[in-house]
């Protein structure tokens, strides 16, 4: 790492710990990609550099159109709308990512798989880490006419309540899911050999900036241990396109790109140049080969769209309660994983078609994540390893834009499978995190201080 970068990183960490960085600067969470939009469309807003350039905006809007296009089975009456299935999870990207956020999980609205689409993925493999030959990497719980879904997910929740050990005796409740799969289209995998992981969608806030983060900073953060807080972060090393890289995307940091081609293939059943085989290949119900159903240029436009999305500015940063919450956030050590400040690389990142994105380079951003793996304990674990990540390890979720999820998507379900019904529950699920010191500090705060800390997080 260059001397300049190392000094910036040290300065950022010191500022985060001491509170020296001004709130006014932190308001611009996405650097020049910050947008002053707190409406239901705040996650969808293009960055100012895109909006002010007609050619870039045209490409952004075309990617937006492809992202939101509801697909039908081929052959389609309207050219360019086909390719769905024969097996799928959603009919479009917005099935799961309403307004580029997190569609309300059908886990709660339908008790598992939805009627017309599902707002989650079920990763599955055997206990040796191999895919089952009659299925694939995810469960496809929907199918076009004439085909049969691979299975249907069901969920039941058990609720347990407790009190905070403070004088207010405030109660909180957590729900624990139990998942199982029914209606297998063929012989079900042996139950004692089946490992699954249920994941709800992530918010698409600042994806381009996230992918452009200076990896030297991530290495430095991973090398910094906080034994007094029991925090031992780790880098996730993954293999993407035949190259070993640091993973930053996904719940377990299992991706180093935005997985556009993988998403269209696995989630919608749309074949493309990178994934030319249908997800149902080898199953007897597949009788027609439609060839490649979306072009490389279209895939690159969707990638451009996602990389060019803006980041909502903070709200209410000057509010005394929010300022107090920020101090408590730091005192509890939350910032040690949810790192306030990172920088993007000086080298411009590139789209999947090789197009450079210079506007993403050399930015100071406030993602509130170190993008590293942390042991969150067996209660949140899924016994589903991915590359370097164990079943109990999860990537620190970026917090920018989190306070607008209710506005954008009409709900406050959080964590990898949406089991936290609100922000308080999300924090309380940190109870088995390695060390759990921050959790204990938060749990013993007076209610007014807990509310202030959550007001700060909701301002991001």
Sequence-ordered SSE layout with sheet pairings:
Blueprint: H1 3-18, H2 23-27, E1 34-35, H3 48-51, H4 54-68, E2 87-88, H5 93-96, H6 106-109, E3 121-126, E4 142-143, E5 152-163, E6 171-182, E7 194-199, H7 207-211, H8 215-223, E8 237-240, E9 243-246, H9 260-268, H10 296-307, E10 311-312, H11 320-331, E11 342-343, E12 364-365, E13 373-375, E14 393-395, H12 405-409, H13 423-428, H14 437-443, H15 447-458
Helix pairs in contact: 4-10, 11-15
Explain the overall architecture.
The chain is α+β, with helices and mostly antiparallel strands and 460 residues long. It contains 15 helices and 14 strands. A two-stranded parallel sheet has the order 1-10. A two-stranded antiparallel sheet has the order 2-4. Strands 3-7 form a two-stranded antiparallel ribbon. The longest helix is centred in the N-terminal third of the chain and has 16 residues, at 3-18.
Features:
two-stranded antiparallel ribbon, 460 residues, disordered N terminus, single chain, alpha+beta, two-stranded parallel sheet, 14 strands
């Amino acid at each position: 790492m260059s001397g300049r970068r190392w000094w910036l990183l040290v300065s950022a960490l010191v500022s985060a710990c001491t509170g020296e960085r001004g709130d006014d600067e932190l308001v611009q969470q996405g650097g020049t990609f910050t947008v002053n939009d707190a409406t239901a469309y705040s996650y969808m807003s293009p960055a100012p550099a895109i909006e002010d350039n007609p050619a870039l905006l045209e490409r952004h809007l075309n990617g937006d159109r492809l992202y939101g296009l509801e697909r039908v089975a081929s052959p389609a009456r309207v050219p360019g709308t086909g390719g769905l299935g024969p097996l799928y999870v959603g009919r479009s990207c917005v099935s799961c990512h309403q307004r580029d956020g997190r569609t309300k999980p059908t886990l709660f609205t339908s008790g598992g798989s939805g009627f017309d689409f599902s707002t989650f993925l079920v990763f599955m493999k055997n206990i040796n880490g191999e895919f089952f030959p009659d299925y694939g990497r995810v469960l496809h719980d929907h199918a076009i006419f004439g085909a049969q879904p691979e299975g249907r997910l069901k969920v039941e929740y058990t609720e347990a309540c407790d009190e905070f050990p403070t004088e207010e005796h405030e109660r909180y409740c957590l729900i624990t899911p139990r998942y199982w799969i029914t209606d297998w289209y063929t012989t079900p995998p042996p139950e004692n050999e089946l490992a699954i992981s249920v994941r709800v969608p992530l918010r698409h806030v600042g994806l381009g900036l996230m992918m452009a983060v200076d990896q030297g900073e991530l290495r430095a953060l991973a090398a910094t241990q906080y034994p007094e807080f029991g925090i031992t972060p780790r880098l996730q090393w993954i293999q993407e396109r035949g190259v070993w890289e640091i993973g930053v995307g996904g719940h377990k940091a299992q991706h180093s790109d935005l997985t556009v081609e993988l998403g269209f293939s696995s989630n919608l059943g749309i074949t493309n140049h990178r994934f030319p085989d249908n997800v149902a290949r080898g199953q007897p119900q597949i009788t027609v080969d439609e060839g490649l159903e979306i072009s490389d240029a279209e895939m690159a436009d969707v990638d451009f769209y996602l990389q060019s999305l803006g980041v909502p500015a903070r709200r209410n940063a000057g509010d005394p309660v929010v300022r107090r919450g920020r101090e408590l956030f730091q005192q509890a050590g939350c910032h040690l994983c949810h790192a306030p400040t990172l920088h993007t690389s000086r080298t411009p990142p590139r789209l999947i078609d090789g197009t450079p994105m210079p506007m993403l380079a050399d930015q100071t951003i406030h993602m509130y994540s170190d993008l590293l793996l942390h042991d969150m304990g067996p209660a949140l674990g899924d016994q589903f390893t991915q590359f370097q990540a164990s079943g109990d390890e999860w990537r620190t979720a970026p917090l920018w834009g989190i306070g607008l999820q209710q506005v954008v998507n009409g709900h406050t379900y959080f964590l990898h499978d949406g089991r936290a019904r609100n922000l308080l529950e999300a924090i309380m699920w940190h109870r088995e995190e390695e060390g759990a010191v921050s959790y204990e500090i938060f749990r013993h705060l007076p209610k007014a201080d807990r509310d202030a800390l959550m007001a700060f997080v909701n301002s991001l």
